[in-house]
């Protein structure tokens, strides 16, 4: 019997995937959202967390981007 | 979205009627891709249907995809009509009305439509710079209104009576603005609209205008379109008397004058209108239009992400502010910097990296326009990288199939998913294989898997 699971397929780069996994592991067992770890760049997750994940990823991105200060500000 | 894409979406009967006009036919021909143009020229004087197998021989195998794209385009515009040949083979011929009009255009009539004998006093006709200023003023006021920099609509000329053009409802109908009266704001689509070339912008608005005009005044679509297109085939500054027009045409003339396509003036006690270069864009066809836009470029981008724009126009400044951080404004110069912050902000409001780079390239200052690439590679790449950075994760609602009873079922399911265009991912190694498809394809997939088990 073929089984079918509904969810969301995430496709991303390897570091991003690792970050998502670490987010998943930081949660209590009953709130974990990864259904299947498909391969290096793909995850199958619960649909309910997609918006939250987007937000976290954006935040993560901002934290890890160096923004040179404006020249006027440094004076 | 321009004129031709819109035609493709119209019902066949309407389009068929439209091809009764030589202006429509010529405008359509101009906007076709080069290969499609050539096919039209080939078939123009062939009276009998051409068998499909001969059409197939027109292109070498290497060019097959372009060949198919051109044919597809022609078919969607109803230009290629399938017809059986004398030997009962499947074949195609050109749309009869279209062919007749084009044959006429090629053999007898010249392009100019300046055949009305009456002419205004030469001294009354606005000069080219006047026309061009008028067109630019009206059009820019409209765009500035869209951006929200000014609170007034482009002024309607007192010389032309008629209803005022419902700019608000047109902008809203085209999806460029949204919201209630006071809080009317530009939408994401509106931001993208600002970066388009004038030709596409014009048609986007006129499309909406024509559609709403059909509802309001009951003027048949063909009549409006025909009048507009023939404007496009006139020379800049060619004038005609307003009271010589029909009632419907007079309303249209007043409306498009407000957008800056026509400039009204008085001569010998009569009201005349003269076409501006904006009107010329109507029938110019999409490709290459941006370059010949009349407006010289004014933007210089340096490798240090500085953008220098030699402009006095509020509109240009407003557009540049969408994606650059303004450093200083001099009377004739805007200096800004592309920063990650400013670009990511623009991306968030719906622009794409390609649109930003495209805009900078399209409006390049003549001094740098000859340089290749016009926008320094490092800047263009960085803008694209910033965009890629905001889209690191792609997510699709999907269904994952597992526990296939046999390898064969898995392979067939994968094939089916690809046919449906719903295929996302497959893994042949895990057990009997795993497959992920878009949720939208789930119902069809479920039926299919049941049927082959």
TrEMBL record, chain A:
<dbReference type="GO" id="GO:0006294">
    <property type="term" value="P:nucleotide-excision repair, preincision complex assembly"/>
</dbReference>
<keyword id="KW-0805">Transcription regulation</keyword>
<comment type="similarity">
    <text>Belongs to the TFB5 family.</text>
</comment>
<dbReference type="GO" id="GO:0005675">
    <property type="term" value="C:transcription factor TFIIH holo complex"/>
</dbReference>
<keyword id="KW-0234">DNA repair</keyword>
<keyword id="KW-0227">DNA damage</keyword>
<comment type="function">
    <text>In NER, TFIIH acts by opening DNA around the lesion to allow the excision of the damaged oligonucleotide and its replacement by a new DNA fragment. In transcription, TFIIH has an essential role in transcription initiation. When the pre-initiation complex (PIC) has been established, TFIIH is required for promoter opening and promoter escape.</text>
</comment>
<keyword id="KW-0539">Nucleus</keyword>
<dbReference type="GO" id="GO:0000439">
    <property type="term" value="C:transcription factor TFIIH core complex"/>
</dbReference>
<keyword id="KW-0804">Transcription</keyword>
<dbReference type="InterPro" id="IPR035935">
    <property type="entry name" value="TFB5-like_sf"/>
</dbReference>
<protein>
    <recommendedName>
        <fullName>General transcription and DNA repair factor IIH subunit TFB5</fullName>
    </recommendedName>
</protein>
<dbReference type="GO" id="GO:0006367">
    <property type="term" value="P:transcription initiation at RNA polymerase II promoter"/>
</dbReference>
<comment type="subunit">
    <text>Component of the 7-subunit TFIIH core complex.</text>
</comment>
<dbReference type="Pfam" id="PF06331">
    <property type="entry name" value="Tfb5"/>
</dbReference>
<dbReference type="InterPro" id="IPR009400">
    <property type="entry name" value="TFIIH_TTDA/Tfb5"/>
</dbReference>
From TrEMBL, chain B:
<keyword id="KW-0539">Nucleus</keyword>
<dbReference type="Pfam" id="PF03849">
    <property type="entry name" value="Tfb2"/>
</dbReference>
<keyword id="KW-0227">DNA damage</keyword>
<comment type="function">
    <text>Component of the general transcription and DNA repair factor IIH (TFIIH) core complex which is involved in general and transcription-coupled nucleotide excision repair (NER) of damaged DNA.</text>
</comment>
<keyword id="KW-0805">Transcription regulation</keyword>
<feature type="region of interest" description="Disordered">
    <location>
        <begin position="108"/>
        <end position="130"/>
    </location>
</feature>
<feature type="domain" description="Transcription factor Tfb2 C-terminal">
    <location>
        <begin position="381"/>
        <end position="450"/>
    </location>
</feature>
<protein>
    <recommendedName>
        <fullName>RNA polymerase II transcription factor B subunit 2</fullName>
    </recommendedName>
</protein>
<dbReference type="InterPro" id="IPR004598">
    <property type="entry name" value="TFIIH_p52/Tfb2"/>
</dbReference>
<comment type="similarity">
    <text>Belongs to the TFB2 family.</text>
</comment>
<dbReference type="Pfam" id="PF18307">
    <property type="entry name" value="Tfb2_C"/>
</dbReference>
<keyword id="KW-0804">Transcription</keyword>
<keyword id="KW-0234">DNA repair</keyword>
<dbReference type="InterPro" id="IPR040662">
    <property type="entry name" value="Tfb2_C"/>
</dbReference>
